[in-house]
Amino acid sequence: MQKRVAGPEIERLIQLLAKLPGLGPRSARRAALHLVKKRESLMQPLTAALEEALDKIVICTTCGNVDTSDPCTICSDPRRDGHVIIVVEDVSDLWAMERASAINAKYHVLGGTLSPLDGVGPSDLNIATLVDRVRNGGVREVILAVNATVDGQTTAHYITDLLAGTEVRVTRLAHGVPVGGELDYLDEGTITAAIRSRTTF
Amino acid sequence: MQKRVAGPEIERLIQLLAKLPGLGPRSARRAALHLVKKRESLMQPLTAALEEALDKIVICTTCGNVDTSDPCTICSDPRRDGHVIIVVEDVSDLWAMERASAINAKYHVLGGTLSPLDGVGPSDLNIATLVDRVRNGGVREVILAVNATVDGQTTAHYITDLLAGTEVRVTRLAHGVPVGGELDYLDEGTITAAIRSRTTF
Ligand SMILES: [Zn+2]
Ligand SMILES: [Zn+2]
Fold it and tell me: A Pfam family matched by this chain, by name (chains A, B) (predicted)?
């Protein structure tokens, strides 16, 4: 706003909302007004939820998951198979895996990928703690569920090399045609992978 | 999340963030994780900004603007021309007018438009307070800067009728080709209006 049309508190709220992923300056203004209009039903509960999150949310020192207890709900769940650790880049990937309900294992959140160009080295990621978990025994398989990007694959290779001296089996997610996916929209690499890994009908 | 993978505080934060305009369930999850990661630089300041906004933001009883003082910054600014009142549907429209810096007048925020289908009648909008402001004198012109929608125009006609007995001049925004707009993308109504209001080159 060029001219001063409101107190600085509103402008500050808009500026901070605009830093959320998915919100730009325009949608941050709309969000701020929406909050003011829904004062009782949204602004107060959201403020309280943020206060509670600030107070309670911690990073699990075992696996890197975000939770309100350390060790987290997943690490301390005895019904989960602790022989299998799924390595993901981010907590959002852990959530995506859980939504799929494909496996009842434990996790390890790297907190990113190796990226020499961005100055991200092994010590910037939760890699040493993964090696510790494997060395402490009881782990039979490490599934590298990193993204199929260059940095993701670099990170997968690095971890595979690190774990080469251990007894653990290192696996990765299969490549192929996404369920519901149309061939016409897929890149050549995916189609080639799907052909190579074809199965009997 | 099907299975319980984290404490309920995180899920609650995600649910509330998803109620913001522009954020869906997926982007709310990303926003929540972003907040947790940027605890010091974003989550704490945003929580503080919301607390301050809850504490200080009020609706101006004169014009319906959102501010931290009542009367608001605009209503109490002696450098603004109080002879002209710009009537807008929403505070976001007031902000849009201010960004354009086209006029140095005062405002009146209706808080919506008349909408018989949605059960919105004159008593649901800040219309009586507008009539009071005009009757109290000192107002020479009321600019109806409502949206060029059916409900906006219905509202404009209703207000024009209400103010018919007063001395005030009631005007509306001009229709025409948006600056930078391409004719090929404009509807027939806009082109017709632009032709009818054509000016000498
Ligand atoms: Zn954990
Ligand atoms: Zn005001």
Answer: RecR_HhH
Domains along the sequence of chain B with CATH: 8-56 (1.10.8.420), 79-172 (3.40.1360.10)
Mean pLDDT along residues A177-183: 83
Q: In A, residues 71-130, which contact B (CB 8 Å cutoff)?
A: 72-74, 90-92, 94-95, 98-99, 101
The pLDDT score that the predictor gives to residue B67 is 94
In B31-50, the residues whose Cβ lies within 8 Å of chain A are 31-36, 38-39, 42-47, 49-50
Cα→Cα distances A159→A116, A166, A171, B64, B160, Å = 15, 12, 11, 60, 72
Question: Are A98 and B1 inside 8 Å of each other by CB?
Answer: yes
Put simply, the answer to whether B21 touches A9 (Cβ < 8 Å) is no
ipTM: 0.81
Task: Yes or no: say if A120 and A114 are a contact pair by the CB < 8 Å rule.
Answer: yes
Residue B97 pLDDT greater than 50, yes or no: yes
CA distance B90 to chain A (A): 9
Cα A47 to ligand 2 centroid, rounded to whole Å: 26
pLDDT at position A5 over 70: no
Of B43, B51, B44, B63, nearest to B130 by C-alpha is B63
In what side-by-side order are the strands of the sheet with B141-144? B105-109, B81-88, B141-144, B169-172
Residue B171 has pLDDT above 90, yes or no: yes
